[in-house]
Amino acid sequence: MGDFARGLRLSTDDVESVSDACTRFREAFEALRGEVGEVIVGQQAVVEQTLLSLFAGGHVLLEGVPGLGKTLLVRTISDALGLEFSRIQFTPDLMPADITGTTVVVEDGAGRREFRFREGPIFANIVLADEINRATPKSQSAMLEAMQERSVSTGDSTRKLPAPFLVLATQNPIEQEGTFPLPEAQLDRFLLKVSVPHAVRAELMEILDRTTANRTTKAEPVLDAEDIVAARELSRRVLIAPTVQDYAIRLVMSTHPEGAFEIPAFRHYIRVGASPRAAQALVSTARVLAIMDGRYAASIEDVRRVALPVLRHRIIRTFEAEADGIDADEIVRGLLERVPVDPDHPEDLATIRTGAAS
Question: By CB atoms within 10 Å of each CB, which of 21, 118, 229, 253 scores lowest?
Answer without folding.
Answer: 118
